[in-house]
Structure prediction request, 276 residues.
Amino acid sequence: MKQTILICVKQLDKEAELAKKELINWAESKKISVWDVTSSDEKLSDKKAKDIILGIAIGGDGTFLTLVRKLSNKELFPLIGVNLGSLGFITEVDRAEMLKVIEQALKGKLKEEKRPVLEVEVYRKKKKVTSGCIFNDAVITKNIDTTMLRFDVSVGGDFLHHVRADGYIVSTPTGSTAYALSAGGPMIHPEVSALELVPICSHSLSSRPILVPLLSKIMIEMKEPRGKASLVYDGQFSFDLEQGDVLKIFHHEKWLRLLHAPQQKWSEALRKKLGM
Prediction:
């Protein structure tokens, strides 16, 4: 049966479209099918994905997160990110190296790394009202007309602290170089099995970023919000929160498979992206 590569590209971007055309021409010469899911909002089921051998995001980290969101099962096949922007920690492959790296991937010459995925559930009056998977972070954030948010945070069933802040971030190691970093959290090496809890603009000097074990179950109970609040998944999807809502965040049973070129090192990425 013919092998298939799944692609998702940055929309309305000329360079991304040129890269896509180059990839499609190359794949055709190798007798490999290309399935472009850029414009599709449909979740890719296990049945539909059975012939896919590789997933490729062409754009930036946002494009990569869009591709991840489209996958029902994050473990079925490995993913590669081709970076067209200036700051991308997940999309590591340079545009000029795209075809070379993809060919190495198909020959099994790239290092595969499993990255954690989190499950988030929201309960309202003890009834689950929404759920989803996150690869980078789950963010509670206030709306523009809200003065402050109040919520209680528990870890592994034990009360941790009461928070008064503009928001709160629960991040994977992958997401530690995204919003969590901007909010003052530490950068976490991908091989560290931890979750990062980061208050956003805390109204208390004692409220600081905290690292907890990866398998910890996080529970956040929304208190009087003094306005409107939202839960944002990976910067891609938003859900309105209400007073009394309870958020449960825990490690998903599936892991995401990410491919790296042998020469790509996390420390080198930090120096290149952050000018360290």
In short: The CA atoms of residues 87 and 274 lie 8 Å apart. The first helix runs from residue 14 to 29.
